[in-house]
Amino acid sequence: MFVKIENQFLSVKIAKKGAELASVMNKTNHLGYLWDGNAEFWAKTSPVLFPIVGTLKENKYRYNDAWYSLPRHGFARDNVFSVEESGKSEVVFKLDDSPDTLKVFPFHFELRLRYKLEEAVLYVTYEVTNTGDGDMYFSIGGHPAFRVPMTETSGYEDHYLEFSEPEDADHWPITAEGLIDKLPLPLLNSSRTLKLTRGLFAGDALVLKGLKSKSVKLGSDTHDYRVEINFDGFPYLGIWAAPGADFVCIEPWCGIADSVASDQELTRKEGIESLAAGRSWSRTWSAAFY
Questions:
Q1: Own/partner long-range contacts of 26-34 (Cβ < 8 Å, ≥24 apart)
Q2: Following DSSP, what letter does each residue of 155-178 receive, concatenated?
Q3: Of 35, 73, 231, 272, which one's alpha carbon is 20 to 30 angstroms from that of 145?
Q4: Per residue in 179-214, pLDDT tens?
């Protein structure tokens, strides 16, 4: 089941399952910008990562002297959201805690996903409300997959990512267990541009911390189509593609996988967000499609 929003520039579909962005069509150039979810490579298109981002050490964490287990990226992407508000160019999805979620995540919450169109820009807002009596600890992030090559006449390696600022950035390798390794590896040396290659993600996602840039552009040497992602307010960025697949994920994260040195205590997890009882928290990333 999908919900459609549109304006004179864009037509967008979002699935109720996972409140997952499913397609983005530019009405001016008739180009579809999102990966089609081909299950041969990766059946998702833009999952919502909540209440964790990435993998927990041994797939479990400790909170208040009790142990809990969560799969990679949490459970939100596998749950059906309700539609709380709906208009022609804006929709709000909502997920509440349940007996099932409380077994693996002992916090009462409301999670809202707001999708809003303004001209050729899609704004995606995450809003988390702590409806419990004590502090809540969580992470959240996006995982949108953009089609590469963007046209039938271009190739994967014709494309690149261009950051808004020159970067001296390392990336943090991911181990076979899905954890952040001890030491980073070089990636960008006073450069704004990262060329896409089929081998770039052979070791899983590129995990970036502390970028100066607030946005990154997906472009090509062979055509003028662009996607520009603004991730201001997200301290981590993941970049990933499945082997041989025609997409690249550009992932704004408030949170990160456990490191190999993690003590598995939720309150000390790197990138964890703390939210007091009765309070709400929000972040917005956006994608402009040209």
A1: 26/120, 26/289, 26/290, 28/120, 29/225, 31/150, 31/151, 31/225, 31/289, 32/147, 33/146, 33/147, 33/150, 33/227, 33/289, 34/144, 34/145, 34/146, 34/147
A2: -GGGEEEEEEEEEEEEEB-B-TTS
A3: 272
A4: 999 999 999 999 999 999 999 999 999 999 999 999
